[in-house]
Amino acid sequence: MVSLYLSLSGLTVDPEKVELALCKLDQFLDEQHNITDGVWSYFIPELGEGGACSLFGHLQEAPFDLSTLLLPSDKNRIALSRLQSLVNFVQQASNVDWFGIYQARSTSEGEQLLKLAYSGAPSRPLFPINQKFAETSNNIQVVMSGRARVINDVQEYVTNGGEYYTCDPKVQAESCLPLFDDANNCVGIIDAEAFSKDFFTPNMLALLIAVCIKIPQYLPE
């Protein structure tokens, strides 16, 4: 399972580090005896002209409601609860400044990445999955290609000509990793952001990969 994920995502990380992280994650999940309702709504920023970027620090008055895109079934309630537990695990184990789990879903406006659970500052709930948006969005590049993207120095990356979608100007490092279903299709991503450079060490990536291996079994219907 670990070797397959590494092959599909294009990441080069010691498989033993990932296996160790998976053991810690399984232990954490075993200790989660109570299943509570997941977070079904959250505040989101206003979007800039044309909806291409978020206006950081300017929140919309009404929160975004996941039930507009997800059936509020018992299965989905449990799924969102489990996903939030995984977010909490990552935050506690890494102290990463922002972390989110996204699922690719069909909407009335086409295929989009939907933010299901996260920790950190408010951010946009949906990303259009199309080639135009992929030009500046790591999230969309990853879900369309199934290949991970790790940027440990955002400023250097942009200086060297890389396109970058800025949500929080404090972010100095970012990792976007794909999520795969049983048929090896990319069905979503995780996005992790840090306010310091070189945050995503091999040990940190091993932790994120372990979570990516676990997440697909908890994605909502």
From TrEMBL:
InterPro entries: GAF, GAF-like_dom_sf. This is GAF domain-containing protein. It comes from the Bacteria. SUPFAM superfamilies: GAF domain-like. Pfam families: GAF (PF01590). Residues 82-212 form the GAF domain.
